[in-house]
Write a structure and sequence with these properties.
Elements lengths: L2 E4 L4 E2 L11 H4 L3 E9 L2 E2 L2 H14 L7 H14 L6 E8 L10 E7 L3 H9 L1 E7 L6 H4 L13 H12 L4 E5 L12 E6 L2 E4 L10 H12 L3 E4 L4 H6 L2 E6 L3 E8 L2 E2 L3 H16 L4
Parallel strand pairs: 7-8, 7-13, 10-11
Antiparallel strand pairs: 1-2, 1-6, 3-4, 3-5, 5-6, 9-10, 9-12, 12-13, 13-14
Helix pairs in contact: 7-9
InterPro entries: Aminotrans_IV, Aminotransferase-like, BCAT-like_C, BCAT-like_N, Class-IV_PLP-Dep_Aminotrnsfr
Keywords: Lyase
Family: Belongs to the class-IV pyridoxal-phosphate-dependent aminotransferase family.
Length: 284
């Protein structure tokens, strides 16, 4: 099941060709995207995703996205999706054809949630720590690296996930050259100790997490403490639990890191239930 719509809200045939062969999103990954979870016909954090789409577009010197058009495009896909079925709504925005008239490419596509993702939400994941090859201060010193932009250039992220899976793990937690914790290829790292949630600041070159932000809002309303501050690899082992947060994954427990089970597994399972409740409460 797939649903596709153009920026004008017109539904398109998802089996028919859409992109030109010389589209720069295909040739060079020159574009940005967002993935929005839709539950019961309601997109979660759509405005936050559109905010991030605009930030990423600005970092790539793309024209500012037309929010009204993107909302219309998203709504067309949502309304055409089967009632009661979860959906991953992808918003894709590229620079367009290499030698075209300067017009960009933009569309929204609805996709089902995979069974593996649904299973991992419940069972948790194993992860490897992998070095990403830069220090946190590079985000400010080298803006051309596009650290913190959700660009279509995901080849490194996908290669990291394939490496993890080839070595018996489900996921990756990137660390910087100085040993600080960054993020997952498609997720935000959240560490829990007692009633405090911590995550790495965007200034370290990580993508600001929309699901992480919603989780932190829910936790703060419930009396928890939240901190956005640098994390070290040792924090992952000393925590009561480690989670990966993303739109489609929601809040998923990391049960094994670098081949070793994380300590306090019962505490981690308990916290996963609590954190899922805090996150879901944002949408009741």
């Amino acid at each position: 099941m797939r649903v596709l719509a153009g920026l004008d809200g017109t539904l398109l045939d998802p089996e028919a060709p859409l992109l030109r062969a010389d589209d720069l999103g295909v040739l060079r990954g020159d574009g940005v995207f967002e993935t929005v979870l839709v539950v019961d016909g309601r997109p979660r954090e759509l405005e936050a995703h559109l905010d991030r789409l605009a930030r990423s577009a600005a970092m790539l010197d793309l024209p500012e996205p037309d929010r009204v058009a993107w909302r219309r495009c998203a709504r067309a896909v949502i309304d055409a999706w089967p009632v009661g079925e979860e959906m991953a709504l992808k918003l894709v925005y590229t620079r367009g054809p290499e030698f075209g008239d300067g017009s960009t490419t933009a569309y929204a596509m609805g996709l089902p949630i995979s069974e593996s993702t649904r299973r991992q939400r419940v069972e948790g994941v194993s992860a490897l720590t992998l070095e990403r090859g830069f220090a946190p201060e590079h985000a400010e010193r080298a803006p051309w690296l596009l650290l913190g932009a959700k660009s279509l250039s995901y080849a490194v992220n996908m290669a990291a996930l394939r490496h993890a899976q080839a070595n018996g793990a489900d996921e990756v937690i990137f660390v910087a050259a100085d040993g600080s914790v960054l993020e997952g290829p498609t997720s935000t790292v959240v560490v829990v100790r007692e009633r405090t949630l911590r995550t790495t600041p965007p200034s370290s070159g990580v993508l600001p997490g929309t699901t992480q932000a919603a989780l932190f809002r829910g936790a703060e309303r419930a009396g928890w403490t939240t901190k956005v501050e640098p994390l070290r690899a040792a924090d992952l082992w000393e925590a009561d639990a480690v989670f990966l947060a993303s739109s489609v994954r929601r809040v998923t427990r990391v049960h094994t890191l670098d081949g070793e089970a994380l300590p306090r597994p019962e505490r981690a399972r308990e916290l996963q239930a609590v954190l899922n409740d805090l996150y879901e409460a944002e949408y009741l």
